[in-house]
Amino acid sequence: MWQDWVIAVCQWGFALALFPTVFGEEKPEVLTAVVTAVLACAVAITFATIPLFWAAIATGSTSILWSVITVQSWRKRHRSRS
């Protein structure tokens, strides 16, 4: 299905765009990161049930990256309070 490929390519683009945030010093607010991670996970699960296999995998990777950013943001906020 062509939609699977279009969504997957777009989601991989979103995932690649997150690498500067993952490896950079600046982090978004924890709530922003956690909500985005959870919602991306919900979209990935939804894609998997359609089934849009490649879109689900790509969106899942975006959710994982947002989860990493969530942990990084949380750690950064807690270190700065110490």
Please summarize what this structure is.
The chain is mainly α and 82 residues long. The chain has helices at 2-23, 30-49, 53-81. The mean pLDDT is 96.
The proportion of residues in beta strands is: under 5%
Order of helices and strands: HHH
Q: Report the biggest beta sheet as strand number plus sense, adding barrel if it closes.
A: none
Question: Fraction of residues in helices?
Answer: over 70%
The parts where pLDDT drops under 50 for at least 5 residues are none
Shape, please? elongated
**Structural class, from secondary structure content?**
mainly alpha
Task: Describe the fold and architecture.
It is a single chain. This protein has 82 residues and is mostly helical. The chain is 87% helix and 0% strand. It has 3 helices and no strands. Helix 2 packs antiparallel against helix 3. The model has no long low-confidence stretch (mean pLDDT 96).
Topology:
Layout: H1 2-23, H2 30-49, H3 53-81
Helix pairs in contact: 1-3, 2-3
Question: Key features?
Answer:
82 residues
